[in-house]
Amino acid sequence: MLSFDTLKEQVADGTVDTVLVCLVDMQGRLMGKRFHAQHFLNGAWEETHCCNYLLATDLEMATPDGYASTSWESGYGDYVMKPDLTTLRPMPWLEGTVMVLCDVLDHNTHQEIPHSPRAVLKKQLKRLEALGLDAIMATELEFFLFEKSFDEIRKGSFRELAPISGYNEDYNILQTTREEHVMRPLRNHLWDAGIPVECTKGEAEAGQEELNIKYDAALNTADFHTIAKHATKEIAWQQGHAVTFMPKWDQNKVGSSSHVHQSLWQDGKPAFFDESDPLGMSQLMKHYLAGMLKYAPDYTYFLAPYINSYKRFMKGTFAPTRIIWSVDNRTAGYRLCGAGTKGIRVECRIGGSDLNPYLACAVQLAAGIAGIEEKLELQAPSTGDVYQGETGMIPSNLRDAGAALQGSDMLKAALGEDVVVHYARAAEWEIEEFERAVTDYEVARGFERA
């Protein structure tokens, strides 16, 4: 991290000349402006502005209709970007550059925009605070690294994609040595940016990588995830490679996930731990996990926000298909980790690598809080092959997940009905855009034989 006074010194001695001032958009991407560092110090550190369409676009930056917050009729006005100076940090892979994350405020009232991802998460953290609890979380980032660059792949129409390795490299040291020209600077630069990287490793497919970051307070965790994902793309680009965080870029390859680990703490102690319980689970933890299970369909959209997200959910792939929990079982939607220890926690394995970490963390907390408030009873853990069975299924497509979101009274109460309506519209738009598309599959299957 970087203090404001240190930034002044670094600008004065010429070490820093650029400040990235960023918000996090609906898709979990960094959007913003590059400021001359001295201008930032002269006043932009207090606030700057952006178009309010930045929280109502899709991946292509299209401006769909149907959003109450912004439209052609209302004229696409401004939001205030308010730098959170506690997030000021160097970006060591970019020369002379530091960055800061912003809260997004209404131009007239200076209140936070409710559907801004950071605001959505902060609202749930305030609810926990009122209960005397803190959320400690961690996310895993999985992605694929490719031989060619982003530009080469784009100019080749995203065909003939070749991962950087030729075989499954799960935990493989020899193959990952060949990738250290990307992964070593990624680890080291993120560490120097104040992000507590634990490790990287080869994942369960050719060219698949995993980046692990140490657990922290929930808002920090979401910040770390977002910056790390951005850094992964930039550092790979600098080395002439492309990466993708698509959950399923090839039907014959395994998918990429983003597992979310979580626990609640009280007065600096793990509130999920009870040494008298056979598994070490406190009653609070049981209520929390029961809430996550009960409301999983309601919030699946925030774990899988695109059409492609649902291509991961297949039997025999280590991706979950059912809303069940199990003890240390990597195929269950919810895995109990650290049983019998103070490190006991829940790992939600549903989320894909394309999730927005602020939204994903927020809705899981909301479901857990509901479980606590409703004093829900936790079902017994599942055993054996948890792919078997037809009950408790995760929504299998975006349409079903969007419908569950629209009908969720729990999320409307927790996030605000306007926020639910906003993101439900985003789900609808993704479906509308996909339904207009003609895919390679359709052409190859029907061009001659239909």
Automatic annotation (TrEMBL):
- Report domain GS beta-grasp positions: 14-109
Q: Which UniProt keywords apply?
A: ATP-binding, Ligase, Nitrogen fixation, Nucleotide-binding
Please name the GO terms that the record assigns under molecular function: ATP binding; glutamine synthetase activity
The cofactors named for this UniProt entry are:
Mg(2+)
Q: What is one Pfam family matched by this protein?
A: Gln-synt_C
Can you give the residue ranges of the GS catalytic domain? 117-450
Any single biological process term in GO: biogenic amine catabolic process
Regions that span the bilayer: none
- Hey, which family's this protein in? Belongs to the glutamine synthetase family.
Function, as annotated, reads:
Catalyzes the ATP-dependent biosynthesis of glutamine from glutamate and ammonia.
Q: What is this protein called?
A: Glutamine synthetase
Native source species:
Parasedimentitalea marina
